[in-house]
Amino acid sequence: MSEGKLSVGKAFLLQAKEDLHATETLGHDISLSPSTFCMLLQMVFEKLAKAYRHRHTYSIPAQLRHEIAGAHFNKTIDEIIRKNPQKHKYYKRIMGLIRTLEDAQPAIAKRKSVHEPQLEYPWENEKHEICYPAKDFPFVQRLLAHTDDIRTAWEALKFAKAYINELDASIRS
Amino acid sequence: MVTLSLKDTAQAVAVSHHKMDEGTHTAKYFPSNDNLIKILEVSSSVATSGSIDPFLCDYDEHHAAPYRIEIILLSDEEWKDVLDKKLRLPDDWDLQYAEDLL
Predict the structure, then answer these.
(1) What is the pLDDT of residues B19-78, one digit of tens each?
(2) Which uninterrupted H or E stretch holds B40?
(3) Domain holding B52: CATH number?
């Protein structure tokens, strides 16, 4: 480990905290901008996954482009589930949401189909209608109508906060 | 169409959340003077973030009741800290007047 040098993992963690703060602020009243809340929540988990993956890295890897957080985060969540089997349904619910949001990251959504709903930018659906996240992203529409989904989103936020604290304690800067 | 009362709406929300998450073992309704429904939920499933962060949402499921709902979601550890007075609920959330929903 390089003494006095910031690790890539710690830098991602610090930025994840910043993103989390913005997500929480917006999430206090989800009806204000549910699509932006979802986008920010996706960003938090993406950075968490990268913080975990690069916690022992001290220079930016050449291949550090957008990485699919799911693959690495899945492994992390699996490890946590093994330690807490009674929370399996809860983690399954959160992971479902995380995957939904990650799949909606524009670079990932486009790999599936140009007609795929995404967070952040407009897209053209299969009927050649122009759609945009605030109006047409399915989970955003659910957030406006179902307290169960709002509750799941908030559970994910609490999990992110708890995991940031846990990682913070384990990543040396 | 029947409009549910504030408390009945709170009950409906708590029951729905308990159905979704069996770990939700405690739900309390905090009566207020305006059209805001305040619910505190405790679940053995959720992570401990160490802070109390209420969130607001609109409740208009099936257009039954146009209310705003404020929810505080706590883990078991956070609930214990509240009861032990190590964590404080917001000023207008007084447990003395809270009513059980589950």
Answers:
(1) 999 999 999 999 987 889 999 999 999 999 999 999 998 776 554 557 889 999 999 999
(2) strand B36-43
(3) 3.30.460
